[in-house]
Amino acid sequence: MSTPDGENCGLVKNLAATGLVSSKVVEPFLDKLARCGMEELVDDTGTSLSGKDKILLDGEWVGTPADAVSFVEEFRRKRRRKQLPHEVANTYTYLP
What we know:
The protein is 33% helix and 12% strand.
């Protein structure tokens, strides 16, 4: 970004005007994911997890959705109604 004050000043000004700083979400979150349709992982070695969709929380695999599309729809609906924190994001990628 080029401004009369210099490129670094323009970058800092735009970041300060448009940036969103999030704080740590301290409320229990796994139960809210379960209400959206997540099945929590259990230490069952007999259960096969290959080919299942993953639900990650802070980079850790915490569960799988029964139906990925309906899970994402419910998750987004709850976030838009402010039942979930706005800092929480979801990404659904379909890989055939």
